[in-house]
Write a structure and sequence with these properties.
The chain is 17% helix and 20% strand. It is built from five helices and twelve strands. It has helices spanning 2-5, 35-38, 46-54, 169-172, 178-188; strands at 28-31, 58-62, 81-82, 86-87, 95-96, 123-124, 127-128, 135-136, 138-140, 148-149, 152-157, 160-165. The strands form four sheets. The chain has a five-stranded mixed beta sheet, covered by helices on one side. Strands 5-9-10 form a three-stranded antiparallel beta sheet, with no helix packed on it.
């Protein structure tokens, strides 16, 4: 519902639908939270999803939980791991690691103000040990702890883009957090 409120036309599919759906008709595809945990059969469609990205699509993978069984699984077009790292302080200061990146500038200029009034946390199950082809856009830390990167990593792949995010959009969007909507709109608005 949050994506529709941004003005995007949304079509919902189940994992089983991927066998017949032409993904190239979509500008962006968003995978639901914990999708690989709930539907491990999604890995059967990894090649189809990454071919979609390579052809110019925008694939957004929301967080999956780290588990022993996930340690040897591939989640993106280039390797990265899913950690148990999280930032539970909803007002943790944000650091912009690549402030000129398009996700932070188009169509909305993302600033510290966009991280005000968040609820419960910044995010969870951040990416870790990612391939150098990925760019990490944010760092946060709870008081007394080191910076945690990997809340949102992005890479070009062919003509398209792949995003992994542990940012808790699933909490922020239902709570009407304006900055989260602005950031999510930027992620979805990718055009090759």
């Amino acid at each position: 519902e949050g994506i529709e409120q941004l003005g995007f036309s949304v079509t919902r599919y189940e994992v089983s639908d991927l066998a017949t759906v032409d993904l190239n008709q979509f500008q962006s595809i968003v995978l639901g939270i914990r999708i690989y945990n709930v539907h491990p059969e999604l890995h059967n469609f990894d090649d189809k999803l990454f071919d979609y990205v390579s052809a110019g699509g925008n694939l957004v993978m929301q967080y999956n939980t780290a588990s022993r069984s996930a340690s040897d699984q591939k989640f993106g077009p280039y390797p990265f791991e899913i950690s148990r790292k999280r930032v539970t302080e909803e007002d943790a200061a944000v650091k912009f690691l690549d402030p000129k990146h398009p996700i932070l500038n188009t169509p909305n200029k993302i600033t510290e103000k966009d991280f005000e009034n968040w609820v419960q946390e910044r995010g969870l199950y951040f990416a870790d040990n990612w391939d150098e082809k990925y760019t990490s856009l944010f760092a946060w830390h709870a008081k007394g702890e080191d910076d945690v990167k990997g809340a949102l990593i992005v890479t070009k792949h062919g003509k398209g883009q792949f995003v992994y995010t542990g940012i808790s959009f699933f909490r922020e969007l239902p709570n009407g957090v304006e900055g989260a909507y602005r950031l999510f709109a930027n992620i979805l608005s990718y055009q090759p």
